[in-house]
Amino acid sequence: MKKIGLLLFVFTLVVGVNAQEKRHTLPKKKVASVNLMDIDGNEVNTGNFGFDGPVIISFWATWCSPCKRELNTIHDLYIDWQDDTGVTLVAVSIDDERTKNSVPMYVNGKGWEYLVLLDPNGDFKRAMGVNNVPHTFLLDTDGNIVYSHNNYAPGDEDELYEHLLELKAEE
Amino acid sequence: MIKQTLLALACSISLLGIGQEENSGGTFTGNIESIFQYLNEDTLIGADQPASKGLLNSYMNVFYTNGNFKAGLRLESYLPRIQGYPSNFDGTGIGMRYVGYTNDFVDVTLGSFYEQFGSGLSLRAYEDRALGYDNMLDGMKIVLRPIKGVTVKGVYGYQRFAFQEGKIVHSSGIVRGIDGEVHLNQAFPSLKKSKLDIRLGGSFVSKFQLDNNSDLILPENVGAYGGRLNLRYGKFTLDGEYILKEQDPSQDNDYIYNYGHAAVFNAGYSKKGFGIILSAKSVDNMSYRSDRTKQLQNVLINYLPSMNKTHTYNLVTSLYPYATQPTGETAFQAEVLYTIKRGSKIGGKYGTSINVNYSTAYQPGRSTSSINPLDSTGVTYTTGLFAMSDSLYWSDFNINIYRKFSKRFNLTLAYYNMILNNDVATVAKTKGLIKSNIFVVEAGFKFKKKRSMRIELQTLLVNRRDSLDQETSFFAEGAKPVDKGDWATVLLEYTINSHWFVSAMDQINFGNYDKKAVHHPYLTVGYIQGSTRLTASYGRQRAGLFCVGGVCRPVPASNGLTLSFTQSF
Hints:
heterodimer; A: 171 residues; Glutaredoxin; 5 helices; B: 569 residues; mainly beta; 24-stranded antiparallel β-barrel; 3 helices; globular
């Protein structure tokens, strides 16, 4: 009887640990919900973008060269990424009032087709735990954060795309 | 025996329960940043060694959300603060904490909060931890969204002035404010398809501080109020905000009883490959603090954006930058971005982008002709919107050309011509205007296996003065450079793979009085994994916005070892 009890205990422990592990590989961390303005003046809630596919959130600023390098590099690949995975990129500018006005100029000038949001007082940046820009997050279709990366070096876009494909394969 | 089995079973069930529990316990997110410095004395560049030799700044944000409920706090630690950080940061403790409730209609916060009304001319509570700026409000905030496109905000609280012995120290004055904004095209369905997009807003802010001055009768309640308008028609945009401030005698304005004003206007046009923006700003007597005796960056209620481009190359940002003048300035800015088409003869395979920017600021025009200095009003001059004198504060012309030649190689050329009035916006121990010409070449190379390299060459040349301190030509006999003379920077950054990078930089001060070149070598090694980032740096460093390994952050001057750790979760 004692043995059975012990066996039962060990068994459930294993199951429990497995369940824990599963949760570890699939952390259910939702994107923060903050109301921001897009560059056309429409209010957007970051907790519910309303897109069908996965979402990339990229924090950037007009004064941050690596950020612009990252978003311009992805811009060249964006059409293919969208066709293959149905992803939407949301570029969140942390420019404050000093440089906020040059955001639409830069975005249109470069012909970006991203959803561009303005976070002039850092509300969304703070809620997402962003220390420095660039900082990129990948969200699944339910708005869970599945990957994040702080930095940009040429080639990092390939790693992001691999994670995007992984996400696509899981679904 | 049965008891033991039952106990084991109970244990197992409860363990299973924990393991299988759905994540209904809410979400924790946040971030941590820690910077350690070990500093040496360096008389050559004027760097001191702190008594404790080691310095450590850390903070950690923890945010919790569960359904409509939210809470958060930040623990801060300065043991002691790193060099260049403001002196009112000290000890370990809770520097920010709040609880709140939010749904589609209401968002209410009790405790610490940040907020911005319009463009911030009337109220902006914000933080910049790298700079050591934090003027958050402690009290209550409510945001209402009665219908789509309409937002009403109310704030009430004491500002954070300092962080002493691990505790928040508040300003002596209280801040109250209300702000409303309507996006007409979202609020009224009939306007939804209108080509003209209109947003209207207005705000009223008031501060209360007891009159603690025995010589003067000071207003205890001081209001600041105004409106704003944002228009968009196709590719054209026009927006502006005007804020008026009531009589607010303070240390900043030498206790005068003038009204103050701040106005900002922007007009823009942009389409694919081309954009232009024109801006104008008029500010007079607009320093607005919750404690009239405070100065520097302390307890500012409003935010007056400086009207110039935020540059990134270190000689451009770290030597002669311009800061906004809250007591008054009239400023203008124009910027054009043009991309020469891809595939064209001049544009090359990937196109070439050209960015031209010009900004300037003058002292506001002030008249004393109608003022009787003997009357008791305390009004010392009259001025108007965009009134201008011929006293130059700042001018900056810059051009930046970027071209991607192939997948493996890109090049940036940049030129800057800056004039700074050092008597007003003081950054150096010299009199009059500091004029500088800066040239930058940046080249990026991409190799196989995610390896890449970036090289920056920069030089800054300042104006010359003769022995009588009169301005003279650059090549004239006996001409001496102003301030510390000319500078050059060489930067080499090498990304080994997606985790590791190294960089080496030298800033060289040459063409100075002694004609002796002073080197500022600086080495950095960094490791990045996901949202964890570790860097170690050693060497001499100037103050300024510092960009290495793909991240930009403002840092103070130092000589020694710096270790930094950041993590998001």
